[in-house]
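Following up on my earlier message about DQA. Here are the inputs again, as you asked, copied directly from the submission form:
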Amino acid sequence: MNIKFNVLLINGPNLNLLGNREINIYGNISLTELIKKLKKKSKQNNINLFDFQSNSESKLINKIHESKNIKIDYIIINPAAFTHTSIALRDALLAVNIPFIEVHISNIYSRETFRSNSWFSDISQGTITGLGIDCYFWALKTISNRLKNISK
Ligand code: DQA
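Thanks, got it. Here's what our run produced:
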């Protein structure tokens, strides 16, 4: 059966600067290039990948609320600095009750101690951190496997 799944990719603050920002930590690929590659991979796996980046907490929350209406099956989220601060974003994810995977390009446990706290990890399906941009591809792969199993 050729069922399509909807996945929403959410990137938080400063990730629009990917490729220019602290290249030694976050690498030199831009967000636009990364999304292009992820969309290609998604297409090969029967996934419609929607993407959203914002530097604004309220816009990110509104997008998560919207996910319910546009029938998103899964969310991949890099909450960026909001990982360590935003109970409001956490509550939004709990409210919509859509399964999600948390990703981080850098290893949040091997940097400043304040980065070791995530308001998302305990409510996520899983957290992938420190594998560079591969984190996004692993998240996509996991979702693809899970959704395929559900549709069997
Ligand atoms: C990040 C890690 C966060 O601590 C940081 O604030 C970011 C990016 C990562 O992808 O490694 O902006 O989420």
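One observation from looking it over: The CA atoms of residues 38 and 137 lie 7 Å apart. Hope that helps, and feel free to reply on this thread.
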